[in-house]
Design brief:
This protein has 182 residues and is mainly alpha-helical. It contains 7 helices and no strands.
């Protein structure tokens, strides 16, 4: 959107975690406010009308009618944690939130570089978005401590990593699939 730019490209103003998105990772999207080529966004337009509010949760009118049904469906990234993540920003601040996100990005990068057989990128991105940092660290420890990991094929490593993440998600009753509009 013309004239809409942001410093933090890892977290959008509406709460999407751009830094954990497959489109951002593939450099197909510059992130929220990352360039003049961004799609028109009613929330970005609203931010500009409200003197460039950096995150919706900092606006006096949040949550407004724009947030009704905003998380009902996912796009290429999960939308399910947006309100929770914006609430974390309110409670702990942007810097603390970004510090945690950077740790999650490191874990995602390990999963993608060492355990992605070419078919798990979306699963890994969704898992890192929806599971908390402690659960992700637990998953990575379990994956990396498997004694025969060096002898496995990439496909076997990928299946094992996906299984570990699914197991943790199942414990928390978290669905690691994108919820697409039908």
């Amino acid at each position: 959107m013309k004239g809409f730019n942001r410093q933090n490209q890892l977290l959008s103003l509406c709460g999407l975690n751009c830094g954990l998105c497959p489109m951002f990772l593939n450099k197909n999207c510059p992130g929220c406010g990352g360039g003049e080529g961004n799609q028109s966004c009613r929330i970005a337009r609203c931010s500009m009308e409200h003197s460039g509010v950096e995150y919706c949760c900092q606006c006096n009118e949040y949550p407004c009618e724009k947030y009704e049904h905003i998380d009902d469906f996912d796009s290429f990234i999960t939308h399910r944690n947006r309100r929770d993540d914006l609430e974390k920003i309110r409670q702990f601040g942007v810097e603390a939130y970004n510090t945690e996100q950077m740790e999650k990005i490191k874990i995602l990068n390990i999963l993608l570089s060492d355990y992605n057989d070419g078919r798990k990128k979306t699963l890994f991105c969704v898992a890192v978005n929806l599971l908390n940092l402690q659960e992700l660290k637990e998953a990575l420890r379990k994956i990396e401590s498997r004694p025969d990991m060096e002898t496995l094929t990439l496909k076997e490593k990928s299946a094992f990593a996906a299984g570990v993440l699914q197991e943790i998600a199942c414990r928390r009753e978290v669905d690691l699939k994108l919820h697409k509009k039908k």
